[in-house]
Design goal:
alpha/beta, Urease, subunit C, domain 1, TIM Barrel, 2 domains, nine-stranded mixed β-sheet, 12 helices, 18 strands, about 25% helix, binds zinc ion
């Protein structure tokens, strides 16, 4: 007696499946039906499957999540080539299924993102509003208390909580000189009322103002609380997690309080030496994000989230750990572990297919200092809600891979 093969919409066959949420690292097939993960097994019979993707020799992971992007392209100016990318450039066309825009817009202009950008993107677009009410449309976004509108911020989060997940505050000059820690306190007051979490940018890349270093300890231990996020964990700027080259004790204290630590690679918010100092202290970041902008996508040093993952691997962090840092942990931060960030049957079929390529790759920080690695992560395909999405050509003349020696 034979049983009829199950009819699936899509099967991804023969890949190395890495699903940290379920402690899976094995060669398996993944079946998708109605936009959901239907089965994760060996040897799925595909004779009744509508579409089969052969992932032999490739890596299959939960859809990658970029927790820090600037993807409100088109909202600020008719052309945003100077700053922001469109959601799909940071997202599905780079192999990434979910992105969080981190404060590109504020309470008074996030409507464009919610009403026009998010519905038209193939990428799952979520956002934090900037504590500055106009976002980064008019830098610096916080010059005085007049740039913060708490009531409007609470109102917009409550009106679109499925997209707006909280508030972003950058601890940079002049906001920190004008307001000090009253700026992140205002962000906390908003999420305390409206829900969501606060993400703070540490490290005063604007002015390297010593005030930043005075504010960070209190910020970490007395203002941020469980579920909040510190971005630029591996920064060496004044006010980062390093003081005189050593990790400040408040970082560990904040972590034990449930605060998360994100990388936010970006440009001047990352250096190999500060990264090594933080990691050598035994302090591994929780998530890897790109902080991608139009500039850093085209001219570097960001290029893509997958390149940021490769860059972090040069610090001795394993490929398997980097996958956790862009899947299950960011999903947990977003409160979406039941929907995305894993390949558990029944969850949303957001899937990334990657290639781990061998070579002599070189990665640069903004200062020009570089590090070398024998591996690079290359995107192959993003699947959003069960639907394969085409990649674009990539940020370099030769495509997605980093520079080779
Ligand atoms: Zn940023």
């Amino acid at each position: 007696m034979t049983t009829e093969p199950t009819t699936y919409d899509l099967v991804i066959s023969g890949g190395r499946v890495i699903d940290p949420a379920n402690s899976i690292d094995a060669q398996l097939d993944i079946a998708v039906s109605n936009g959901k993960i239907a089965a994760v097994e060996t040897g799925i019979n595909t004779s009744a499957t509508k579409r089969v993707v052969d992932a032999s020799g490739l890596i299959v992971t939960p859809g990658l999540i970029d927790l820090h992007t600037h993807a409100a392209g088109g909202i600020r100016k008719p052309s945003n080539d100077d700053f922001m990318v469109s959601p799909d450039v940071a997202g599905v066309t780079a192999g990434i299924t979910t992105i969080l825009d981190a404060g590109s817009t504020g309470a008074l202009n996030v409507g464009g993102l919610v009403n026009y950008l998010a519905p038209s993107a193939s990428t799952r677009l979520l956002a934090l509003i900037n504590i500055g009410k106009m976002g980064v449309a008019n830098l610096p976004e916080v010059k005085s208390i007049d740039d913060i509108d708490q009531a409007a911020s609470i109102e917009v989060i409550q009106s679109a909580p499925e997209i707006i997940r909280g508030v972003k505050a950058r601890m940079v000059t002049p906001g920190i000189t004008a307001l000090g820690n009253d700026m992140p306190r205002a962000a906390k007051a908003i999420t305390d009322e409206a829900g969501g979490f606060v993400m703070v940018h540490v490290g005063d890349i604007v002015a390297q103002n010593p005030v930043a270093a005075d504010l960070t300890p209190t910020l970490l231990t007395d203002i941020l609380s469980k579920g909040d996020v510190v971005t630029h964990t591996l920064s060496g700027a004044v006010g980062s997690l390093l003081a005189d080259g050593s990790l400040i004790s408040q970082a560990q204290e904040a972590r034990s309080n449930g605060v998360y630590f994100d990388v936010g690679v970006g440009g001047r918010n990352f250096s190999f030496s500060s990264a090594q100092a933080v990691i050598d202290s035994g302090f591994l970041p929780d998530t890897i994000s790109s902080d991608i902008t139009a500039m850093s996508r085209h001219a570097g040093p960001v290029f893509s989230l997958t390149e940021c993952m490769s860059k972090i691997m040069t610090l001795g962090i394993s490929f398997e750990d980097t996958i956790r840092m862009v899947t299950s942990t960011p999903a947990e931060i977003l409160g979406m572990s039941n929907e995305i960030g894993s390949l558990s049957p029944g969850s949303i079929a957001d899937i990334s297919i990657l290639d781990l390529v061998e070579g002599e790759f070189r990665f640069h920080e903004a200062s020009g200092i570089s590090a070398q690695s024998s591996q690079a992560v290359k995107p192959v395909l993003a699947i959003r809600d069960g639907v394969p999405q085409p990649l674009d050509y990539g940020p370099r003349p030769w495509g997605w891979l980093p520079t080779q020696d």
